[in-house]
Amino acid sequence: MAETDPLGKNWKLWGGILAFIAAVVILGLIFFPRTPPQPEATPTTPAPTVPVNTAPPSASPSASTSKPASGDCPALSTDTSFPNDAPATEWKRHPAGMLLPVSAEHGPAKMDGDFWRCFSHTPSGAVFAGLTLLLDISGAGIIDAAAESPQRDELFKQWMSLEQTSEYPVISGYRIMNSSDDAASVEYIGPAGNQYVSTRVDLLWDDKANDWRLDLSSGEPAWDVTTDPSSYTDLK
């Protein structure tokens, strides 16, 4: 997939992620010098894989749609079951430069410029919202992608004050840690050499916007090495 990779406005978060991934790869070379990383080889344990070709989303026969409560977001799926199998997914490049999963049923339904938004009020909607909103604010500089808090404002200032980067981590899977009508937490996983790293993103439901918003009240999402990649669901 040959695409132009536009730069965003600020990349402290994504640069830190890539630096962490690089450190993991270096440690792997130190402790396993005879076993160089093989990114394209099949892991010994089931692990998420990134799609090579995009697949158009298909509507689920059992899915229903909601009526917007407020805001300008359209009606989306109301299927609140946990997505043990990834919903139908298409991969599109955000204007900030990162390839993201999107869904016809769960969002983002509005991709106006740099602010990709409008996700279903469901666990599946939270899966698509977390990663996208994190890029919206940290990469595209859209502060409204996160709920208001002093921590959000401070992190936004930090992200906007640093240099850009054109490199992005690869996200290949997810798992929902908790989900309710008002909040959700989603962990995302990505390959780092012969290991995997993960991060947890917290979300809040905004009734006024009729949409998910990032919750940064606990600070910046941190990344760590994942010991059990098989516990995550593949994004296909």
List keywords for this structure.
236 residues; alpha+beta; two-stranded antiparallel ribbon; disordered N terminus
Tell me the fraction of residues in β-strands, as a range.
15-25%
- Determine the N-to-C terminus distance: 16 Å
Major sheet details = 6 strands, antiparallel
Rg is 17 Å
Shape: globular
Helix content: 10-25%
- Count of DSSP H/I helices: 3
Summarize the helix and strand pattern as letters: HEEEEHHEEEEEE
User: Which regions have little confidence, pLDDT < 50, spanning 5+ residues?
Assistant: 1-9, 23-69
Mean pLDDT: 78
Provide a short characterization of the protein structure.
The protein has 236 residues and is of the alpha+beta class. The protein is built from three helices and ten strands; from the N terminus they run αββββααββββββ.
Account of the protein in words:
With 236 residues, the protein is α+β, with helices and mostly antiparallel strands. Helix content is 20%, strand content 22%.
Strand and helix map with partners:
Elements: H1 12-31, E1 90-93, E2 99-102, E3 110-112, E4 115-117, H2 123-138, H3 150-160, E5 173-179, E6 183-192, E7 195-206, E8 211-214, E9 223-226, E10 233-234
Antiparallel strand pairs: 1-2, 3-4, 5-6, 5-10, 6-7, 7-8, 7-9
